[in-house]
Amino acid sequence: MNPMCGRCNLVVYPTEKVNCLDKYWHKGCFSCEVCKMTLNMKNYKGFEKRPYCNAHYPKTNFTAVADTPENLRLKQQSKIQSTVLYKEDFEKNKGRGFSVVTDTPELQRLKKTQDQISNIKYHEEFEKRKGEAPHHQPSNPSPAYQQPAASQNFHYEPAPEPVRPAAAAPPPSAGKRYRAVYDYSAADEDEVSFVDGDLIVDVQQIDEGWMYGRVDRTGQQGMLPANYVEAI
């Protein structure tokens, strides 16, 4: 069955059929809705399933919203709300410019090791000054003179980074001797390297896993793992 024309509503035969805009048209009926100019598939423009030429194609106009008192009130209220939210967010984030450093187990171990090394160096300096004290004392020493010297000896600050203790004189608790049972290569600047069979002297226990001592073969002083040596 042949379809009906979209304009004249008459039967459209295949030889004169134009299929466009979801409808069938006679070639002569496929024309502009305004000026009736005959169109083809290349120059037509469709609007609401009706053909138009380029000159009479309906223009889309934007709808203007009037500044009514209600719209002005809503606009002002939105602006005030945005300002309030900005101030709340500013107050909430104020003072958060610093970075928080996570206190990881590794940082705790390094901090504890640094404190232990600083304590060892303090004892060494204290023993040195105690031995040199008679040379600097006046002929008639008095308690009033000794007090500033004692205060000066006990005032120290932790080292900013792990430092290998000086090899001049061992601390009072030194004297333990260990022998290496494995090879070990230093992983940090405050550690020492040794090989199996090396003699470790002036050893002090830092914690369950670390010691501080001097490798007798190389003269290096520093931290070493406790499970790599055995007591002699």
Automatic annotation (TrEMBL):
LIM zinc-binding domain mapped to chain residues: 3-63
Ranges of biased composition (kind: Pro residues): 159-173
GO biological process, one term: monoatomic ion transport
GO MF, one annotated term: actin filament binding
Intracellular or extracellular location(s): Cytoplasm, Cell cortex; Cytoplasm, Cytoskeleton
Main location: cytoplasm
Stated name of the protein: LIM and SH3 domain protein 1
Organism: Stegastes partitus
